[in-house]
Design goal:
- The protein is of the alpha+beta class and 361 residues long.
- Helices cover 27% and strands 25% of the residues.
- The chain is built from 9 helices and 16 strands.
- Strands 1, 2, 3, 4, 5, 6, 7 and 16 form an 8-stranded antiparallel sheet that branches. Strands 8, 9, 10, 11, 12, 13, 14 and 15 form an 8-stranded mixed sheet that branches.
- Helix 4 packs across helix 5.
- The two termini are 33 Å apart.
- It binds pyridoxal-5'-phosphate (PLP).
- The site of pyridoxal-5'-phosphate has 14 residues, from helix 7 and strand 13.
Length: 361
Amino acid sequence: MLVLLRHYSRHESDVQTANGASIKAEENDLCNWDGLGFSLTPTDYMYLMKCSKGESAFSQGHLTPYGNIELSPSSGVLNYGQGLLEGLKASRGDDNRIRLFRPEQNALRMQMGAKRMCMPSPTTEQFVGSIKQTALANKRWIPPPGKGSLYIRPLLLGTGPILGVAPSPEYTFLAYASPVGNYFKGPLNFAVEDNVYRAIPGGTGGIKSITNYSPNYKAISRAKAKGFTDVLFLDGATGKNIEEGTACNIFVVKGNTISTPPTKGTILPGITRKSIIEIASWLGYQIEERAIPLEELINADEAFCTGTAITVKPVGSVTYQGQRVEYKTAEGTVSEKLYRTLTGIQTGRIEDNMGWIVEIN
Ligand SMILES: *Cc1c(COP(=O)(O)O)cnc(C)c1O
């Protein structure tokens, strides 16, 4: 009820500002587009779809006002963490067209994760359709060109009641959206984490399971309290090789070679990672996917991270057991070149020859 009221009152205030001819002004007043960070701004609609008990597939979903959902106290997701998340962006280019970036890749990754977590998943068509609808229903929340994007967060949750440790009898897919800023507030300063491991061989590090994140809060808050932006995880098997950040993949540059750890189950196969590997090879770099000892990062010319939220972001420093190494982050870096190319394709400034862009106007 509270949610419905809040939703209603937001529309009421829009009506007040939308009087007469200035619908455009209303859209500009909606949000402080210049002050967007990566925090939640609730939008108008979310998408909901269910896979009911006894069914093996999701039936037709629908848009509904953004708000709270009702869950059984004994739902699989609340009791045993049976859930997956995804993340992708809808962006407005200088031509004012709205684009999604490789949404079918998010659909495929959710399907892969769903198999691992014994859940049914939406088909690629259902997934991409839901993302288009969510973006278009919240069109007024897509920031103006250059100001950011509409971040879309799909979830796949075991929502049916279950007491024993077993897959839930019912599932919910939902997608909500929030405008976010460009997230480019300086380079990353990593603290290498040599005490907490994010993933182990045979575990769930390679899928976007909701259970992969909160176990790291302690390490992250410890690092943040010391002024670092994020932690860099090492591999759980040997503690010698670099893996990734909290929600971003890492690349190391040495000469003309760009290396990144392989996605063999303990590292999240980022869609930005995959795209950057392709872009870097067209640009003539040598790409290596292999285990990277921490010393190699320490001796690198440059390092950068990739992810939907941050796109491509340079690593400014890495600190391991009190020793800090710094990297170049200014103009002329490899990461800057890759950032420009990737965001150029995402915003339509650079022609998409790869079929990565889905226009949804
Ligand atoms: C989501 C995520 C990434 C980045 O993946 P993208 O598809 O590029 O957004 C990297 N690492 C982890 C742990 C993640 O959750």
